[in-house]
Amino acid sequence: MALPRSLPDGDVVVHEVLADQAVDYERQEKVLHGGMKQARDIGLWLGRTGQTLTVDRLPGAAAYPRPYASTRLFTLTTGQVGRYRANFRFTGCACSPSWYYEDWLVHVSYGQVTPGHFVHRQPDRDVDHRVHLYGGTARRNP
Q: Nearest-5° angle of CA 62, CA 74, CA 78?
């Protein structure tokens, strides 16, 4: 999915797209912008040191795979793009057998990109943490 043609200014700009089964996978989009807090709100930790940007995934509330400490995803230099793929199974409270599934596709750019950049260009860094959500070693193929 391409970025919107016009994005607001900010140290961090997030284009979040949700396709939820509860609404027949109708896409819901929103654009968030501001400082580094925007990344924390979506489960990422960004750190800038000189000419590099480090991207970590913060621990979350997933039932599987089990949440651990922060995970380093990649380090980018100016003009580079990283892609992170992961899937998770979440449960409600212990009193409910219900669960839901999330499949993440996250692109991070260190610097400006064109609207079709993530769609038409291969990332400089690619991390795939998708797992078989019921345990075991099998992992689905892309």
A: 135
What is the full DSSP assignment across 74-105?
EEEETT-EEEEEEEEEEE--TT---EEEEEEE
β-strands 81-91, 125-129 pairing: parallel
Distance, CA of 114 to CA of 5 (rounded, Å): 8
CA distance 46 to 129: 18
Note if the pTM is more than 0.70. Answer: yes
d(CA 30, CA 72): 26
Please check whether residue 131 is in contact with residue 87, taking contact to mean a CB–CB distance below 8 angstroms: yes
| pLDDT tens-digit map of 7-22 | 888 888 988 898 988 8
- Name the token pair of 30: 């929103």
88-123 residue pLDDT tens = 888 877 777 778 888 999 999 998 887 788 888 899
